[in-house]
Amino acid sequence: MIKVTNHIETELIMINIPEILVANGTGAILVLFLLLYRIRIAQTNQFDEKAYNFLLIVTFIATINETLSFIIDARPGFIFYILQYISNTICTDASVIVGYCWCLFVEYHIYRNTNRIKKKSQILAIPLIITTILLIINLFGNGIIFSISEKNKYMRGLFSYVIYVVVFFYYIESIWTVKSAKNDSILVEFFPIYYFVVPCMIGTIIQGLFFGIAVGWLCVAIAFILIYIEFQISNSFIDDLSGLYNRKYMNHYLNKLQSNKTKHVYGFLMDINEFKAINDTYGHLKGDHALIEFGRILQHSIDKDSVAIRMGGDEFVIFAKLQSDTEAVKLKKRIENNVRQFNIHSKEPFHLSFSIGIAKYNGKNIDTFLSAMDDSMYEAKNMHRLMQ
Predict the structure, then answer these.
(1) Which numeric CATH code is attached to 247-387?
(2) Digit-coded pLDDT (tens) for 44-79
(3) pTM over the 0.90 mark
(4) Are 214 and 23 spatial neighbours (Cβ–Cβ below 8 Å)?
(5) 297: buried, middle or exposed (CB in 10 Å: 19+, 13-18, 0-12)?
(6) What is the SS3 string spanning 317-379?
């Protein structure tokens, strides 16, 4: 079967239908399996969960439509002519929709802020709206994006590149979101942004350069599988309650610290004072809120070269790359001030206070480093008890 790639009908490419059926069939099966699995184990109704599932549905529909468009290409008849326009319009718009929804998924998954997502969704919708309008106009047969010849052959239009520009814009924007979050000290060290973007870009480029090779949606399906696996791995490093890194990540961090022999790293070990009293007085639900709020305070107190960890119970630790003891004292005061502001403005029935121990890593012995933090923290804890 022959398919024309542009308005110059001398450029012909043989289309291997069995190969396309295998590629798109594999992609469809992968996303359908992942979608059904996620529906079966669904535990939340958050926006990012819905967005991810919607992305899988769009990808599944696109793989089916693309397969249909190749099968009916160059088949004579008015019905096939109409189906060509419909199926190719759906596939083209689906690629833009996937890019748009991916950006929203990344934004909400990182920041968990409905106000941010509402504002960003409106701004990012502009390219999607423009391309959708162009595709609707294209249905009238002017060929600005693509056209179907009298022999029902698909041909790319003069402005087909606009779709590629918009799709790549969305992928680059999602990378920028992750980079910005890292600069804001948001937990994105394990965010698998490139596991999605790189396969999708490769598939888009190959299919753009070599029309008739159906790898685009298969690459998207593979990308979804990759990021799902990576999310499961990264979640094992996150504390479910506080949203901070957990003790497993602390061990990972300390192993890297010892291997790299990094110096100028300070450890801040913290323990919430009278945490048992909060549980006994206000209940364990409020106790959980206290841990969540304290974790949020720590996260907003550090910069991009620091990491906040919940070790377990009411114990937390911060590892920070600092140049001097003076900077360490400044970080301690910043945490104290943020806790003070919480106590002033919070409507929670409890107040937070904490004891903190600080130690500097000598670049050699991790156990000595941890022991120094522990001794310093318990010294501060005893001082707090004496002042009661």
Answers:
(1) 3.30.70.270
(2) 667 888 899 999 999 999 999 999 988 888 888 999
(3) no
(4) yes
(5) buried
(6) EEEEECCCHHHHHHHHHHHHHHHHHHHHHCCCCCCCCEEEEEEECCCCCHHHHHHHHHHHHHH
